[in-house]
């Protein structure tokens, strides 16, 4: 192309650059709430690459401030919001970056066309990988110009110009839509942009009909595109109904591309699959969103949350739902994190079985002494089950609250009430055999019938024969139910292991059935002790 690229390396290393910063894309303030009208989403296709082509933004077209007056005004593009940045228009001299980006876009279009015509699954997969690689490469050109620290060829002026045009366009798009789609122009309602982020806008047209919202979305996209410089294009993407809009970059909605059937629940910025949250939090978030978005059942969501909180505080949640697993990194040993402290603890107990760097460490947070730090209370899940340690339910309640509160605060007037009240005033189950006081205390024997303290188990002198028979029958029913649970879990493990006749040797701590089986077996062992005290012969 006849250009010489300067080298910014010294001795094979990138020369140090100034950490010059610039403003990124625009994020319009969201109208928070539980939107129960269809919200259409319009998206700029390849916004930053398109801006580079449309406005001829490049190293080679950037005009130094001292040379601007050397060009006629009609040959110069001034950047909105940064009027001191000027570029030569493409009809005078086309820039290198626009040429490169255009070739990449055309190559991607060709790959996608070939993919549509391809019948061979293997070749189709290769073409899909190619078009994705071309997409990433195209979008990375903008980042290449903005990498002022450690970049090979940074030019912050170009990056600033790109984001300035992007911010200008998103604001102008909002203004144009709200000015054009009004009742005074013949439309049923006045349109309102409820949110916008970098390259997309969300519009509430006022209609309750999804198909009408789709049609208006397509019309709005065509209207805005007609006012833009090619190849910048705004296209209709989807409709949300309903939409929970919380904060910037944080929302969830039921996504429609077809008015007859929703595609999926679409979430942005919400903790559903994060590994630093336990499975209980993820499951609760998924269920609450399903109740709010699919079933439109706010009362059902509230009752579900209260019910799960009650189960947690009563120690009725399966322990596998509370386990958090994190990778043990080399640098982690310098930090006091729960999984790191547990790894040190396990090394003291058994150096041969201690986790090494790169291993994943599973842990639970148990109750401890007053003012004891959280990282000091991390414990291995199997150790918790075998020693009947008490789970710190308040820790998990806080995790649930942190995750769900953002969703609930834009829907209900008093979300705090879901995490306090009668359903949280529960006597917590479980005891910590590893606590300091427990080593100096002896557990008193209690009557199986009336729970009175007694010297000789199992019953006190005040419980008559009828009461005793009732208790025995109740214990038998409980043990039979636990037996069924245990053998169902055992059978699942046998099938997974591939043998119905051998002892289970599985030690997969990531499997939810593992802890259920161990815990149920421990309950059955306890029941055998109860039967011995009742002088009943019992064979599982």
Automatic annotation (TrEMBL):
Catalytic activity: DNA(n) + a 2'-deoxyribonucleoside 5'-triphosphate = DNA(n+1) + diphosphate
Occurrences of domain C4-type zinc-finger of DNA polymerase delta (ranges): 447-517
Alphabetized SUPFAM superfamilies for the sequence: DNA/RNA polymerases
Keywords from the named record: 4Fe-4S, DNA-binding, DNA-directed DNA polymerase, Iron, Iron-sulfur, Metal-binding, Nucleotidyltransferase, Nucleus, Transferase, Zinc, Zinc-finger
Localization annotation: Nucleus
BP GO terms, sorted: base-excision repair, gap-filling; DNA replication proofreading; nucleotide-excision repair, DNA gap filling
Protein name, as recorded: DNA-directed DNA polymerase
